Amino acid sequence: MFDFGIAGYQPLWLNRRSDVVREHAQRLRGLAGRTLTGVWMVWDRQDDEWFCDCPVLFDFEGEQVEINHQKFDDLSLTWNTIDPAGQVRWPGFDLRWRTEPLPGLHALRGLSLTRVELLDWTGLDGRDLARNVDLSFVFGASRVTVFNALDENGLSFAPPDRRQRSHPLD
Questions:
Q1: Whole-structure pTM value
Q2: Model pLDDT for residues 95-145, shown as the tens digit of each residue
Q3: What are the E-state strand segments in 18-152?
């Protein structure tokens, strides 16, 4: 199993919303009411940009959810397994963990999580090959979504796209 160059990381790939709900809904629901204390991303120091292939870590007062996407529809959620003080070893890259490297993330630190939503990609008239599940954290009027950007992670601060169906985990 590929560990993305991160000691101790063992992704568990799921493909359907029902699988994510079965494996993680209770724990994701338990994040509601907690304060976001940090977001960690892997940063490519040579190109000075986010290295989107590695997991994104959201820390809610000591409960860390680790989110990663690959291929068209693989989503992995793991919990408290990655130490952002550790090294990321990926041949040919100079990678380091960085906290809130994007302005939108820094603005969310200190906010209380209202709810978690799973977003199903419905595509165009149901004919889209991608059938991925994305994870969205809602903080009152603000939100951040880690989405499948076709074999890597993407990040959005906007409401769900009209081609996504939201499923709140209440």
A1: 0.94
A2: 999 999 998 999 999 999 999 999 998 766 656 555 689 999 999 999 999
A3: 36-44, 49-50, 56-60, 63-70, 74-79, 95-99, 115-121, 133-139, 142-148
Segment holding 153, helix H or strand E: strand 153-156
Of 147, 150, 145, the C-alpha closest to 130 is 150
Q: Are 139 and 108 in contact (CB under 8 A)?
A: yes
Separation between Cα atoms, residue 86 and residue 96, nearest integer Å: 8
C-alpha–C-alpha distance, residues 91 and 64, integer Å = 26
The CA distance from 20 to 135, in Å, is 10
- Other CB atoms within a 10 A radius of the CB of residue 15 amount to 15
